[in-house]
Fold this protein.
Amino acid sequence: MKAEVPALQGIDVLLYARKLSEADKTAGQLIPYQTSLSFDPQRDSDTNATKSGSVSTSSSLETDLEVEFTNNWSKIADQLWDSLFDNEKMEFWIVYRKRKNADGKYFAFYMRGTVKEDSNDNDPDDTSNRDTSINVEGTPRRGWTSLSDEAEQQMAYIFRGVGKIEGTPKNDGTDGDGKAWDKENDAGTAVDLDSTPAQSHSQEA
């Protein structure tokens, strides 16, 4: 029987960016508070009628990349303005966080380009929002990328206990005297505080 193909959700597709000039200094950064991401590669085609039949022609590939996000003062949000104002080239990655290969790397599109428009809406009864359009150069490249622990943490919260965190966070679920949920072993378990001695009970589905 054919395996079911999982549907990809828009919430799991995220944009990372970095100044091309800083490739040897910093990792790509997640643009915070993304609300929408549009990726539209396209190639126009035309058909010319000849005496020997129709001949099809196609233009070079053009790619529209647009990200909407809640305005913030992160470094990468400011650098998007740098790209527009100073014509600085940037690198972009569209990362699919629910699609991995056998090595644990994430499926991604890689592109280079500059910001061509950055509109900013500031309604009095809403958050400040930005809509950034990027002029992508050449052809986007598909591949697989690993993410640093910091980048992985940017994509999703990791469980923490309520206790004070001593030293550098381990981000393994045990910070703050916590323990991350184990789907296989924790479902249906609890301790009956009225029994003596205390016993762990598990309910079978």
The two ends are 26 Å apart (CA to CA). The first strand starts at residue 13 and ends at 19.
